[in-house]
Each structure stands twice: as structure tokens, then as C-alpha cells.
Design brief:
single chain; 441 residues; alpha/beta; Aspartate Aminotransferase, domain 1; Aspartate Aminotransferase, domain 2; 2 domains; 7-stranded mixed β-sheet; 4-stranded mixed β-sheet; 16 helices; 15 strands; 16% strand; binds 3-[O-phosphonopyridoxyl]--amino-benzoic acid; binds pyridoxal-5'-phosphate
């Protein structure tokens, strides 16, 4: 392929998402192609993808099965209306998905992103109580430091201050349980932290305040990714599950990052043995190739809607592109790739090697915590006094110059490579990152 792709001569028009626009446009970092574990930049460098794009390219880049599926589908049926009409692939995909989902979740609603999956799940939860005649249950409970996308519902239940503070009063009737980050007791834990199951009891506080009869659902990420990789303390998710069961509150797991193999199983519901009532996914569903999300629901939640006259719409919700045929083809190609290469469990096989390599960085300057599970790792750095985020952002820039893509949030470095990574590539990743960290001011 030609490497003579030139840089566009005007970068002004595109307002970049979640980006320091002015910094980027002064010194652009441009990706022009990708294959397997690597991006190629416009200056011809091969950069190791340490983040699976944005936690989504779980099968790696330019995988043949996915390319073929998308190319065929776009020529055969590019689009079919999603409302009151169907096409074969969307049913085929839903059936394949419920095969790998927890056994009680046999229904799937399609969206186009994680943010839309979250909105869909929150609406389903509130509507579910209402169709059962329990319409006072409208309150939604999220968690401090939670990330549930960027739409109004998602930022309302979310708990990342910078994503909330600019946008007014948000959704009413929302409250938050406390986050689970506790470096004092859990620093440098390998795998799940020993301490903190009792943080789940904070839900009891909110139930005492609002009364369970007003609460529709609790939404949490089983592993809080975007805020900087916070693993659930041992026993924490089970305790949340127990409290929700006791009070008739739905439990939503936001598995947008944790779904599709990242933690070492298809979903973290399997990995941690705690099954939610509703599960939101996106990202790894199509390995990032075409935007798509899916919301999985427990059978009795779906069935509760299937009442009334049969010619009437049961759930007044959906997107123009829900179950888009090309997205479905991408997802089917992705699932085939996962299946053939054993990728949904590969993170579990590599976890030990990954963990050892990651924790070998613990004595480097400014490192105050290291966390990991499956093929996820995080390195928390001491912020520069008065200049939060700067130290980690410098590490990101230096790593990129040294042919390694990492991701930072605040002063935390997050790592989540494609699930096809080799041991040699893991070595390259941590050797490079170690050199970058050693040089940080
Ligand atoms: N829920 C969770 C748990 C997520 O992690 C979303 C919802 C929203 O998905 P969409 O597809 O609308 O972006 C996410 C997305 C990062 C990072 O670097 C994380 C996400 C997106 C982009 C960057 O931490 N998470
Ligand atoms: N805005 C307008 C004016 C629309 O007509 C529609 C869909 O018909 C939307 C927003 C929602 O778009 P989507 O279904 O792609 O989310």
C-alpha cells in the first residue's frame, strides 16, 4: 500500500472529541493504516497498539473474516429500515450473542454505541417497573467515578466530574454510591483487591434515604475502566447483587469495556460469577470496525413488555441504525474470529505473563499503584503538584514517539491491548513503557 499519504492541509474544521484540540493540531499524531497489533503513522512508523484503539479492537486490526463479512454485506444489503422490518443477519447475530451470554439473558436490543446502550438500559429499567405496575420505581443509582458514556442519562448516572460539571442539572432522581478506589489498603494488588467489599453497603444508605420503592436500577461497571481501571474488590459485586435482590432493584452491568474477552471470559458476569439483570455492551462487539452496541436482558424483563394487543409497539425506543446490516455483518465476522482463535478466553491464558511484566514497573519513579486483571493494566502516577494529568500525558506523548500507543486518564496509564497480543509484544510494550517512565520528570 502507498505510504505517500500526505497530511491534510487543514486541520481546523474537525472539532475533535475528548482531545486537546490545539495541542493536537500543532503536533498531529496521524494513523493511516493498521494491521493486527500495529498502527502505521503518516511518517511511516509502526506503533504497537497497547490500547486496542479505545478498548474496542479486541480481535486486532484488519482481520480477514471481518473485512470479508463487511465487504460482502455492503454490496448485498446496505441498509434496511429497523422499525417494523427486519433482515436475516440481525436475527442471526442476536441468536449467536445469546449463546455466549449468561444463560438467563436470551434477548438483545441493538444500538450504535456504548452511550446508546446505556440510555437504552436505563429506559428499559424504568419502563420495566412501570409495565409491571410498579411505576414509582424511577430513581437511578450510579457510582462515583463511573463512566457510562456521554449522553445525558449516562453522564447523570456517571460519576466523572469533568464529564458532568459543564452540563447543567442533568437527569433528576439520580444518586450515587461511593467509588471503590482505596490505594491505602490495596496498592499494587495483583488481580482483585482484598479490601472493599463493604463499599457495596453504601447502597443500603441510599435505600434508607430514598426508600427502595422509588429505585428502579443500579448501574455499575464491573471493572471501572475509563476512570482509571478500578477492579471490583473481592465479594463486592456479589454484595451489590444481594442487596438489589433483597429490595427488588435491577442491577445493570455496563460491560462496554469488560465485554467480549477483555477480562478472560466472554463477559465479566461469567468471570466474576455475578449475573446482572441487564448488561450493556458495544466496542468489542464489532472489534471497533463498525459502530454497534447491544443490550442484553433477562428473559422475564423482556417478557414483561410482551403483553397487550399484538399490533401495538411494546417498547417506544430504537435508533435508525439499530441492527444495521453492515454492523451485524461486522459483528458476525468478529464473533467468528473470536471463536476460531479462542480470543474470548485468551486474556485468561496470558494474564499471568501480563501481570508479571506489568508489575515489574512498580519501583519506577512516581509510580504509586499498579492494577491488573485479564488483559487490562493500569499504572497510577503521582501527579505533578499543581499540574494534574501532565505527567501521564507526557508519558503518552513519549511512548507514542517510541512506537507505543498507551492511554491516559488523569495521571493513570491504562493498557488494554488487542487480545491477539504475543508475549514478545508484551515484552516490547513494558520495555518501552519502562524506559519512558524512567525518564519522566
Ligand atoms: N460505558 C462504558 C463502561 C464505557 O467504557 C461507554 C459506556 C460509552 O461508549 P461509547 O461507545 O458511546 O463511547 C464507555 C466508553 C477511555 C475510553 O480511554 C473509554 C471509553 C470510550 C473512550 C475512551 O477510558 N468508554
Ligand atoms: N433527530 C431527528 C430530526 C430525527 O428525525 C431522528 C431520527 O429519525 C433523530 C434525531 C434520531 O436519529 P437516530 O435514530 O439515528 O438516533
Amino acid at each position: 500500500m502507498s505510504k505517500s499519504i500526505t497530511r491534510p492541509n487543514n486541520l481546523e474544521a474537525f472539532w475533535m472529541p475528548f482531545t486537546a484540540n490545539r495541542q493536537f493540531k500543532q503536533t498531529p499524531r496521524m494513523m493511516v493504516s493498521a494491521k493486527d497489533m500495529h498502527y502505521t503513522t503518516d511518517d511511516g512508523r509502526q506503533v504497537l497498539d497497547g490500547t486496542a484503539g479505545l478498548w474496542c479492537c479486541n480481535a486486532g486490526h484488519a482481520r480477514p473474516k471481518i473485512i470479508e463479512a463487511v465487504q460482502q454485506q455492503v454490496a448485498e444489503l446496505d441498509y434496511a429500515p429497523a422499525f417494523q422490518l427486519g433482515h436475516p443477519k440481525v436475527f442471526e447475530l442476536a441468536s449467536e450473542l445469546v449463546e455466549i451470554a449468561p444463560s438467563s439473558m436470551n434477548h438483545v436490543f441493538f444500538t450504535n454505541s456504548g452511550s446508546e446502550s446505556v440510555e437504552t438500559a436505563l429506559k428499559m429499567a424504568i419502563a420495566y417497573h412501570r409495565v409491571r405496575g410498579d411505576g414509582a420505581r424511577t430513581r437511578l443509582i450510579g457510582r462515583e467515578r463511573g463512566y457510562h458514556g456521554v449522553n445525558f442519562g449516562g453522564i447523570s448516572v456517571g460519576g466523572i466530574v469533568s464529564n458532568r460539571k459543564m452540563f447543567g442539572t442533568l437527569l433528576g432522581g439520580v444518586d450515587h454510591i461511593r467509588h471503590t478506589h482505596d490505594i491505602t489498603r490495596n496498592a499494587f494488588t495483583k488481580g482483585l483487591p482484598e479490601h472493599g467489599a463493604e463499599f457495596a453497603d453504601d447502597l443500603e444508605r441510599l435505600i434508607a434515604l430514598h426508600d427502595a420503592s422509588t429505585i428502579a436500577a443500579v448501574i455499575v461497571e464491573p471493572m471501572a475502566g475509563s476512570t482509571g481501571v478500578l477492579m471490583p474488590p473481592k465479594g463486592y459485586l456479589q454484595r451489590l447483587r444481594d442487596i438489589c435482590d433483597q429490595y427488588g432493584i435491577l442491577l445493570i452491568f455496563d460491560e462496554v469495556i469488560t465485554g467480549f474477552g477483555r477480562m478472560g471470559g466472554a463477559f465479566s458476569a461469567d468471570v466474576f460469577g455475578v449475573v446482572p439483570d441487564i448488561m450493556t455492551t458495544a466496542k468489542g462487539l464489532t472489534s471497533g470496525v463498525i459502530p454497534m452496541g447491544a443490550v442484553f436482558v433477562r428473559d422475564d424483563i423482556h417478557d414483561a413488555f410482551m403483553t397487550g394487543p399484538e399490533h401495538l409497539i411494546e417498547f417506544f425506543h430504537g435508533y435508525t441504525y439499530s441492527g444495521n446490516p453492515v454492523a451485524c455483518a461486522a459483528a458476525l465476522g468478529t464473533l467468528a474470529t473470536y471463536r476460531e482463535e479462542g480470543l474470548l478466553t485468551r486474556a485468561a491464558e496470558l494474564a499471568g505473563y501480563w501481570e508479571d511484566a506489568l508489575h515489574s514497573l512498580r519501583d519506577l519513579p512516581h509510580v504509586i499503584d499498579i492494577r491488573n486483571y485479564g488483559l487490562i493494566g493500569a499504572i497510577e502516577l503521582e501527579p505533578i503538584a499543581g499540574e494534574p494529568t501532565k505527567r501521564a500525558f507526557t508519558a503518552f506523548l513519549n511512548a507514542f514517539e517510541n512506537d507505543l500507543l498507551i492511554r491516559t486518564t488523569g495521571d493513570i496509564i491504562a493498557l488494554s491491548p488487542p487480545l491477539i497480543i504475543s508475549k514478545e509484544e508484551i515484552d516490547f510494550l513494558f520495555d518501552t513503557l519502562g524506559r519512558v517512565l524512567k525518564k519522566l520528570d
